[in-house]
Design a protein that fits this description.
The structure holds two protein chains of two kinds. Chain A is mostly helical. Chain A has two domains: 78 residues, Four Helix Bundle (Hemerythrin (Met), subunit A) (Up-down Bundle), CATH 1.20.120.1200; 98 residues, no CATH class. Chain A is 70% helix and 0% strand. Chain A has six helices and no strands. Chain B is mostly helical. Chain B has a single domain, classed as Helix Hairpins (Orthogonal Bundle), CATH 1.10.287. Chain B contains three helices and no strands. The longest helix of chain B is centred in the C-terminal third of the chain and has 28 residues. The radius of gyration of chain B is 19 Å and the shape is elongated. The N and C termini of chain B lie far apart (69 Å). Classes of the chains: A mainly alpha, B mainly alpha. Chain A: Pfam families: Oxidored_q3.
């Protein structure tokens, strides 16, 4: 059963990722991104990360992809892009070599460090029918005790992002007057 | 002795290798595509690959801190997308085509 879940979710993730890279229409690429994000959410559930799976669907598939689609429609760039020409000579072979190199190095690191994995924490609570909120409770205890300072700083980050976007996207009255 | 297919269980290494492949696909996408929106989506792919490896390793070493890290990565990714799309929209006010080749000059 776990193998079946892994194979299906991995197929979703890889097909979606290849779709993002290869589809010429930005709207299709965004839809492929949704497929990948759902596959990742399935894998989160398989690892007892139920809260993160829900947040993944709500924030990524719900908010971020909608934001992408909104900008695509707003800018009117939803027509297909010509992918047949390479802007730089040999760009794609070089990019493929670098990508395969990065992947190979990471896989080599994973395989060689496999023996070093050992249990260092207190365990991750499994969500069951008897305790449906086990994961959320454990995650909340970790965030609001050990990582509460980082959590507070995150609110400052979000405030800065919001203010920065408003300032940037605002129509400035001095545009074109040289000021 | 032959191992039956139903006995094979995916280990954490499978998930880590899948996340490495996903990261590689995202890297190639950033290098190949010229549409800044698609490049952003490829950056999201790379962030998700890292998130997947965080969760898989948290399960492997039985520590909830991996999931906490993913929580913060989600927040930072949301802020990054908002700022990045704001920059793209303000660039598109002055230009008609949307490729990164047209953004080579810093002078707007």
């Amino acid at each position: 059963m776990e193998l079946f879940v892994f194979v299906v979710a991995a197929a979703m993730v890889l097909v979606g990722a290849l779709g993002v890279v290869t589809r010429s229409n930005p709207v299709h690429a965004a839809m492929s991104l949704v497929l990948t994000l759902f596959g990742i959410a399935v894998m989160f559930v398989a690892h007892n990360a139920h809260f993160l799976a829900a947040v993944q669907v709500i924030v990524y598939a719900g908010a971020i992809v909608v934001l992408f689609l909104f900008v695509i429609m707003l800018l009117g760039v939803d027509q297909a892009e010509d992918l047949s020409v390479e802007p730089i000579t040999n760009q794609r072979p070089l990019a493929a070599i670098i990508g395969l190199g990065v992947t190979g190095i990471v896989i080599a690191a994973i395989v060689s460090s496999r023996a070093g994995f050992r249990v260092i924490g207190d365990g991750i609570n499994e969500t069951t029918v008897e305790s449906p909120d086990a994961n959320i409770t454990q995650l909340a205890r970790a965030i609001f005790s050990d990582n509460v300072f980082a959590f507070e700083i995150t609110s400052v980050l979000l405030l800065v992002a919001v203010i920065g976007t408003v300032v940037m996207a605002r129509k400035s009255k001095s545009v074109g007057t040289g000021k | 002795m032959s191992v039956m297919v139903s006995v094979i269980q995916p280990t954490e290494s499978w998930y880590l290798i899948l996340s490495a492949v996903l990261f590689g696909i995202g890297t190639v996408g950033v290098m190949v595509r010229r549409n800044p929106l698609i490049m952003f989506m490829c950056i999201e792919l790379m962030l998700n690959a890292v998130n997947l490896s965080f969760v898989a390793l948290a399960s492997e070493v039985a520590d909830i801190d991996g999931q906490v890290a993913v929580f913060f990565v989600l927040v930072v990714a949301a802020a990054e997308v908002v700022v990045g799309l704001g920059i793209i929209v303000s660039i598109m006010r002055r230009r008609t085509t949307l490729t990164v080749d047209d953004m080579s000059g810093l002078k707007g």
